[in-house]
Each structure stands twice: as structure tokens, then as C-alpha cells.
Specification:
mainly alpha; about 75% helix
Length: about 200
Amino acid sequence: MNNQSDLAFLRDVATSGQHAPSLSGRHFLWWGGLATPALVGHWAIISGLAGIPGSFVGFVWMAYGIIGLIGSGLLAKSLHGKPGSGAVNNRAEAAAWRSVTWTVTAYALGAVLAMALGRGDAILFDTIPLVAFGAYGLSFSVTAQLGGARWMHAMAILSWLASGIGLTLVGTPGLYLFAAAAVGLLAIIPGVVLLRQEPATEAG
């Protein structure tokens, strides 16, 4: 994709009164596709179904973080040349979701540090997916206000509901099955929809 064709694409979008299609679908699918089995694995370990020590939960999430960040970087490179990648709404949406990632990462590391210092309780880890869902809601809301699809308003509301409802399950293994189902609804399904709506990459 060359600069002229990209500018032409953005000009057509602007003159039609529309916003460039969202390019976040592949990231939704990647992170959602990783988080869902990680959450189910967490549930299987702490419920005793997996038959392995609870300490293995840490390895699950360590692998999730390392694999996720590597894959996310590769996905970002795959967007080079996509029509609309320089559009304001796509740049702002990408910034919003990066903020979600770093917010949840900072919170999770804080929980680990609190435990290491003897100033926290294991229950802190149960609140991490709830913080993530709250942050999802903010990002969906921002994206919707920037011209995203109408259904993103509903996704924002569902994200906040997932955060609140999940709080009633804190301290139980069921929280992680609930969170896995919520990720499927809030990340995997939107990812499929957005990926199908991506414009094709042009040669040149």
C-alpha cells in the first residue's frame, strides 16, 4: 500500500461522512483466544480438576503474557499497509486498547508485589479479570464515540456488567469459568466481526 492509495482511501472515507473501518479485530481474536483457555486452565487447577498444585496457575499466566505480547507485536506489523491504518479513529482505538493492556498489567504486577511483601491476599488475583472488564468498557465506549459500530455501545455496557457481576463470584472457582465466557462474548465474537469488515490490503 503506498501513500497515495492510503490518502485516496482516507479521502473517500471522509467525503462519505464515515470513519475508517476498525483494524483491531485480529488483536481481539488473539488476546481473546489466549485468555479463554488460560481462564479455563486457571479454573481447572484451582477447582482440583487438573490434579496439579495451585502454584501452576502462575505458569499459566506467565505463558499467557509472554506469548501474548510477542504475538501482539507481530500482529501490529501485519497491519502495515492496511487501508485506514493511519486514520484518527484507528490510532485512537489502538491507543485505548494499549492503555487497557498496560492498566491490567500494572494491576496484576501490583497484586503479585503485594503478595510478595506479605501485604495482600490471594483474593486480589480474583479481581484482575474484573478490572480488565471495566477497562474493556472504557475502551469500547471510546471507540464507539469515535465512530465505531453502534453495537460497541452495547459491548461497553456488557463489559461493565461483567465486571460487576463477576465481583459476586470472587473467591470461587466459578469466577474463572464466568470470565472465560465473558471473554468469548467481549473479545472473540467482536474480533470475528471486525476482522470480516477489514478492508483488503492493496499492493503497491
